[in-house]
Automatic annotation (TrEMBL):
Organism this protein belongs to: Pseudonocardia adelaidensis
Disordered as annotated region, ranges: 155-180
A Pfam cross-reference name: MC_hydratase
Name recorded for this polypeptide: MaoC family dehydratase
């Protein structure tokens, strides 16, 4: 008989404790294409992000990755461990871009829980504040910020979105035998 095993559901308010550190599992190598598309998408017209000649003549000697892209990657890397069950960001504070990021850099993020408190207006949720920092492949910090968010309590009515079920169950039937 096939058993459906639940996947990682993320943390709920009750799972956060001040001082806990989450080393987010996925690194992300930023490519020149990522940077170009992001500048086009966001209408960032600073040529330091997409004009090699301008980048080479700058004090950095090459094009920079647009800092909002670095911020977006850092926040995205933290979601699986921190805000998978959040329903609202409340603030982003103390944002510091501490070193340049270039195409080809691989970014890794980690977060520490700074504060938790029950919500006075939403009994089905709590408020959590974390500090996230992002490092590159050499371990150099490139970004740090604090983020505060509303997160559901375990069992809250709106915590788990309804998931459709397939019309037919997923089974082992029809599996090809391994070559001997």
């Amino acid at each position: 008989m096939t058993r459906i095993q639940p996947g990682w559901q993320g943390r709920f308010f009750e799972d956060f404790a001040v001082g806990d550190v989450y080393e987010h599992p996925l690194g992300r190598t930023v490519t020149e294409t990522d940077n170009t598309w992001f500048t086009l998408l966001t209408m960032n017209t600073n040529q330091a992000h997409f004009n090699a000649q301008v980048g080479e003549s700058s004090e950095f000697g090459r094009m920079l990755v647009a800092s909002p892209l670095t911020i977006a990657i850092a926040i995205g890397q933290s979601v699986t461990d921190t805000t998978q069950n959040a329903f609202a960001n409340l603030g982003l504070d103390g944002l510091r871009l501490t070193a340049p990021v270039y195409a080809g850099d691989t970014l890794w993020s980690e977060s520490i829980v700074l504060a938790t408190r029950e919500s006075r207006s939403r009994p089905e949720a709590g408020i959590v504040t974390i500090r996230t920092r992002t490092i590159n492949q050499d371990g150099a910090e490139v970004l740090t910020f604090e983020r505060t968010f509303y997160v559901h309590r375990r069992g809250a009515e709106r915590a788990t979105p309804p998931r459709p079920r397939a019309r037919t169950p997923l089974t082992l039937a029809g599996r090809k035998e391994e070559a001997r």
